C-alpha cells in the first residue's frame, strides 16, 4: 500500500518500488500475493508497457491497455523448481470458459479474442460445451434408453446447432475439417444411441462418452477460431491426459501422477503454446471415457492448472466476481478483490457464486491464484482467490470478508440432564439423523452438555424429529431427556473471513449489529478454525440481519430508516436540517439515512425508498393518505432493507408517547422532544426506562428539557461519575424567560406572549407554558432522572393563567382574551421594579427533600437569573462536587432550530447503529 502512494505521483518511482517489492517477494515466498496483486494493478501501466519485465517472473499485473490481469510468467523460486520437469519457458496461463461464455458463435469469437489478448507465452484454455448442449446430450441418452426414437431428431438438432455455429465462425479449410469431424462424430453417436435404444439401457461410460462430445466440439471450434488469426493453436482431448478414479457419491479423484505422465507424452507429440482443452471429460485408468461429474470444467481447469504449475487460473463467467453478500439481498454488496482459498471454500458452501470447494484444492497446493472474471464486463478486475496475505493490521473491516445466508432450515434441540457426561449421546443423535438421510448443516453444544442443537433443512426435520423421538423414547419417558424440540422457519447467517481468528471483537461486533437491529439469535456456532461464525435466526429476520451485519463491518453504508411524527414547527425544521445533513452523513460517516414516512395528525406520506426531502411538503399535500399510526409503524418496521429504524416524535401528544414502550420493544429507536412520556405516570415511565436499559434500543430525549441545551446529558454525566445531585434550580421555560426578559417599559404582557408564540417558543397550546405545566414537566423529568419517584401532581405549580381564562376552549380564544389581564401584570411588574427586582418563573428540584416546585419569584437585578436575554434557560446544578458554586448551563432553551438540532447530531445517529450508548442514566 505504501508504494501505491508513490505510484500515483511518480510513475518512475513506482516502477523502482515495484521492482524492489518483487525481488523481495521472490525470496520471501508467496504469502503476499494478493497484496502484490493490488499494488501491481495500479502500477501495471509501467510494467505492462516496459520491455524490462523478464525479472518480474511469475507475478500478476493489471495490463491497463488490455484491461486484464495477466501473469508475468514464472511464479516463485519454489514453483519454478517444482515445475522443472515440465516444458521449459514461460509459465502457463490457464483460462476456463463455461457454457454461457461459449453460448453463440459471437461469444466463441469473443473468447478467442480474450485468449489472444493474454500476452502470456503459454496459454491453456479449458472450455465447456456450448450453452445447453450438455443437457441436450443427456437428453439424447435418456430418450434412447427409454426407447423414444425422437432421439434421432434431437441428435439432428445438436448437429444443426454446431454446424450453424461453425459456419458463422469459421471458413475455408478449417470449416471443412470441423464439419467433416462433426459428421463422423454424429454418425458414431447415432450408432451408439441406436445400441442404447436397443438395449433400453445406457451404462455410465456410454452415457459419459455421448455427453462428452459437447466439449470436444466447442474446443475444436475455439481452436480453429484462434488459428484464424494466425496464432498456432492445438486442441486437447482431455480424455487422453486426465485420469480420474471414481470415489462414489458422484465425485472423482484425479490421479495426478498418471495424468502428469500422460500430459508430458501429449506435449512431446504436440509442443503447442496455445492449447484449447476440453473441460468436464476425463478417462478412467482403464481409458474408459468418464466425466468430472458435478464439479465440471472448473475442476478440469484447476487440475490442469496444477499439472502445468500455472501462473494463474482465470475462470471466466458472467458475474463481476465474488460479492460480499448476495446482491439481491444487499444491493450495496461489493465485489471482493481478494479471497483466501479457505474463504472461497466457506463462501461456496453458502451457495455464493464461487467455485466448488473441490475445485480449489488442486491449485491451492501450489498457491496458484484463481481469478474469477466476467467475460461480459472485461473492465471489472474480478476476484482473486489466493493464499491470504499475512495479517497486517487486524482491522475489523478486513477480518470479515463476506456474509452468506441459508434459508429454509429448522433447528432441532435435544435437551436433558441425562446427556451430561454420558459419552455417545452425540453419536446416537447423529446416527439417527444419518439413518433418515438428513444433512446436518450446523451443530452447537454448550459445554454444560445439557443440550445439543443442530440445524437441518426444513424439509428433512419431520423425519429427523420422528427418528429422535423413537430413538430416545425411553430416555424421554424416564426424564433423562426433557425434550426433543423443533424450531421451524430458521435461517443461518454466516460471517466469513480468515482473519477473524486472530482479531478480538469480531463476534462482539457481529452480535452488536444484530442486537441493534433487534434480531434475536437462536443458536451460534464457531469452529475453532474461525473462518466462519454462524448464527441461526428467524427466517423473517434474515435479510435484515444480513444487511445490519454487512453494513456494520463497513462493507456497505449503515442504513437508517427514519419516521417523523408531527411535522409541525420542530418536525418541519428537523426535516429541513436532515435534507442537508443526510448527504454529509452519507459522505463522512457512511450512514445512509432515509425518511421513510412523515405523519401529521390528519395525513401521512410513506415511501419504500426514502422521501425526497426537498418535496415532502408538496407530497404531504398531494400524495398523502389519511394518517394511521399503526400502518405508519408497520411500514417502517417491516422494511427488510433497513435494519436500523428510528422514530422521531415531534408532537406534544400523550397518545403518541404512550407507544414508545412498544416501539422500543420492536427495536425501533425513539428520539423525541415530547415531554409527555417522561413526565407521564411514574409507573409507565419506570417501565419504559427499565426496558430501555435492558435493550439495545436507544431512547433520546435531550430536547425535552432546555431544548438543544445539554441538560439531560450534563445531569447523566454527573450521576455516572458518582456525583450526588442536591438541587437543580433554574429557568426552564424558553417562553416564560422570553416573556419576562422582554416585559419592560411600555410593552403589555399579552403582546410579549404573542411574540413568544410567534417566535416558536411556546408549546402548541401556550397555556401549557403560562400555566407552568411545561416547567413542571421538566422539573419532573429531571427529578426522575435524579432518582426521585415523583408524579406530576406532586409538584406545586403557580399558574400564570388567570382563573377566568383556564376554561377557554382553544389557544386562540385564550390569546384573544389575554389583553384584558394586562393591567394586573403591569402592576405586578411595577411592584418588583420598585424593589429593584425582576420577575422570573423558576423550577426547583430539591433532591435532598425529595420534592419539586414551580413558581414566579422576584430576583435582585444582579442575580444571575436576572441577566438573561431572549429565550434563555439557565439551569444550576448544586451537587456534592459543585456545592459552593453550582454548575450552570445557560443558553437559548426554546426555538425551532436549537430544538431540532438536538436530534440529528451525527454522533448520535452513528451510535444508533454502531452500538455506543450515548445517553445513559443512573439505575434507580
Ligand atoms: N418549540 C420549541 O421550542 C420546543 C422546544 C423543545 C421541545 N419542544 C417540543 O416539541 C414538540 C413539538 O413542538 P412544536 O413547536 O413543533 O409544535 P407544533 O404544534 O408546531 O407541531 C406539532 C405537530 O404534531 C402534529 N400532531 C399532533 N398530534 C399528532 C398525532 N397524534 N400524530 C401525528 N401528528 C400529530 C400536529 O399536527 C403538529 O403538526 C412538542 O412536544 C414540544 O413540547 C418544542
Ligand atoms: N415551550 C417550551 C419549549 C421548550 O421545551 C418552552 O418555552 O420552553
Ligand atoms: Na436539552
Automatic annotation (TrEMBL):
Cofactor(s) this protein requires: a metal cation
Reaction(s) catalysed by this chain's protein: L-homoserine + NAD(+) = L-aspartate 4-semialdehyde + NADH + H(+); L-homoserine + NADP(+) = L-aspartate 4-semialdehyde + NADPH + H(+); L-aspartate + ATP = 4-phospho-L-aspartate + ADP
Subunit-level organization: Homo- or heterodimer.
Record's function text: Bifunctional aspartate kinase and homoserine dehydrogenase that catalyzes the first and the third steps toward the synthesis of lysine, methionine and threonine from aspartate.
Pathway per the UniProt entry: Amino-acid biosynthesis; L-threonine biosynthesis; L-threonine from L-aspartate: step 3/5; Amino-acid biosynthesis; L-methionine biosynthesis via de novo pathway; L-homoserine from L-aspartate: step 3/3; Amino-acid biosynthesis; L-threonine biosynthesis; L-threonine from L-aspartate: step 1/5; Amino-acid biosynthesis; L-methionine biosynthesis via de novo pathway; L-homoserine from L-aspartate: step 1/3
CDD domains reported in the protein's UniProt record: AAK_AK-HSDH, ACT_AKi-HSDH-ThrA-like_1, ACT_AKi-HSDH-ThrA_2
Main location as per UniProt: plastid
Boundaries of every ACT domain copy: 414-489, 495-572
Domain of life per record: Eukaryota
Alphabetical keyword list: Amino-acid biosynthesis, ATP-binding, Chloroplast, Kinase, Lysine biosynthesis, Metal-binding, Methionine biosynthesis, Multifunctional enzyme, NAD, NADP, Nucleotide-binding, Oxidoreductase, Plastid, Repeat, Sodium, Threonine biosynthesis, Transferase, Transit peptide
InterPro entries: ACT_Aspartokinase, ACT_dom, AK-HSDH_N, Asp/Glu/Uridylate_kinase, Asp/hSer_DH_NAD-bd, Asp_kinase, Aspartate_kinase_CS, Bifunc_Aspkin/hSer_DH
Compartments where located: Plastid, Chloroplast
MF (Gene Ontology): aspartate kinase activity; ATP binding; homoserine dehydrogenase activity; metal ion binding; NADP binding
GO (cellular component) term, any one: chloroplast
PROSITE patterns: ACT, ASPARTOKINASE, HOMOSER_DHGENASE
Name by which UniProt lists this protein: ACT domain-containing protein
Upper classification of the organism: Eukaryota, Viridiplantae, Streptophyta, Embryophyta, Tracheophyta
Family: In the C-terminal section; belongs to the homoserine dehydrogenase family. In the N-terminal section; belongs to the aspartokinase family.
Gene Ontology biological process terms, A to Z: homoserine biosynthetic process; lysine biosynthetic process; methionine biosynthetic process; threonine biosynthetic process
